[in-house]
Design goal:
The chain is mainly α. The chain is 45% helix and 9% strand. A hairpin with a 2-residue loop joins strand 3 and strand 4 (87-88). Helix 2 (26-32) crosses helix 3 (39-48). The termini are far apart. The model has no long low-confidence stretch (mean pLDDT 94).
Length: 92
């Protein structure tokens, strides 16, 4: 298995283990997959591999995807996650 395939498999495993209401940053996914610092590569995988729960992944600051934040927010809201002004709202 190549390093790239191992990374992709690890990211897919992290994402498929999420449940409705989970929200992770790209960096969280990379770290949980065992590749801290590979946040940008997580985004690459999400853009290439279909069927992954992409809407559960946001930037480190909670920002939604810029090309369709309304769809991103709609999918998160369906799972009980609150979004406002293009970001996930974190209750503290």
């Amino acid at each position: 298995m190549t390093e790239r395939a191992g990374f992709e498999d690890a990211v897919v495993a992290v994402l498929t283990a999420t449940v409705p209401g989970d929200v992770l940053s790209y960096g969280d996914v990379a770290a949980e997959a065992g590749y801290p610092g590979a946040a940008r590569a997580v985004g690459n995988i999400l853009s290439r591999v279909g069927g992954l729960p992409w809407w559960r992944v946001v930037t480190a600051s909670g920002r939604l995807i810029p090309h369709d934040p309304d769809e991103h927010a709609r999918r998160l809201a369906a799972e009980g996650v609150t979004c406002r002004n293009g970001r996930v709202v974190v209750d503290r």
